[in-house]
């Protein structure tokens, strides 16, 4: 349902959503079942997705039905979302730029099939256009491509959605598993064949060996020398004062 503040804009966002979604027919994009267009209650009706949205599996420990996604399902998520976005960009008679790709807008049905949703910020452009005009910032902070943050926006391309998709993928990795800058340098300077596979994603069911490694990591990290701890505490105090 559109909230009251958005409904005041002559229902323009609502009309935009209906107009865009009715053109879409893809397994990885929400399907419009119906809508209510009265001024008091403007509502879009989608197929029911009992597993909620992807953000619940990434950011919350309270997963729907107490389930965790397996590594295969995590991979399937990435593939399904990418296929949905590709369809929006190339599969319709018009190019649909979403401008708000994020875990909160990826719905999961009873079979964990991914559904790209929420087209309130989307725009339609001819397929042959490689760039599009935009006069206002669109998107969610943290997922917006840097070019969308410029004060004077002239043109934008479908690659803004690709950037958002990349941020979504990054959020599937645990913070403790991020490499140190020394490891990053070793990766950049080393041979491709020597690169190690990244750790399993955040929502992968933990096993004893992984938990043991992470426990060891935190223990090592917390064992600070007497020389570095006062410096760290002074920095923290300075941040709090500012």
Side by side, the strands of the main sheet go 1-2
Gyration radius, in Å: 22 Å
End-to-end separation? 41 Å
The residue ranges in which pLDDT falls below 50 over 5 or more consecutive positions are 207-242
| Quantity of strands, as a count | 8
The third-level CATH topology of the domain at 51-170 is Transferase(Phosphotransferase), domain 1
Summarize the main sheet. Answer: 2 strands, antiparallel
CATH class of the domain at 51-170: Mainly Alpha
Coarse shape: globular
Helix content: 25-40%
Order of helices and strands: HHEEHHEEEEEEHHHH
So how many helices?
A: 8
Give the helix/strand class.
alpha+beta
Annotated CATH architecture of the domain at 51-170: Orthogonal Bundle
Assign the CATH superfamily of the domain at 51-170.
Transferase(Phosphotransferase) domain 1
Mean pLDDT: 75
Approximately what portion of the residues adopt beta-strand conformation?
A: 5-15%
Catalytic activity: L-threonyl-[protein] + ATP = O-phospho-L-threonyl-[protein] + ADP + H(+); L-seryl-[protein] + ATP = O-phospho-L-seryl-[protein] + ADP + H(+)
Domain Protein kinase: 1-242
GO cellular component, one term: membrane
Main location: membrane
Fold and architecture overview:
With 242 residues, the chain is of the alpha+beta class. The chain has a domain at 51-170: Transferase(Phosphotransferase), domain 1 (Orthogonal Bundle). It has helices at residues 4-7, 12-21, 55-59, 71-90, 159-170, 181-189, 208-222, 228-241; strands spanning 32-37, 42-46, 95-97, 106-108, 114-116, 123-125, 132-133, 155-156. Strands 1-2 form a two-stranded antiparallel ribbon. Residues 207-242 have low confidence and may be disordered. It catalyses: L-threonyl-[protein] + ATP = O-phospho-L-threonyl-[protein] + ADP + H(+); L-seryl-[protein] + ATP = O-phospho-L-seryl-[protein] + ADP + H(+). Its EC number is 2.7.11.1. Keywords: ATP-binding, Glycoprotein, Kinase, Membrane, Nucleotide-binding, Serine/threonine-protein kinase, Signal, Transferase, Transmembrane, Transmembrane helix.
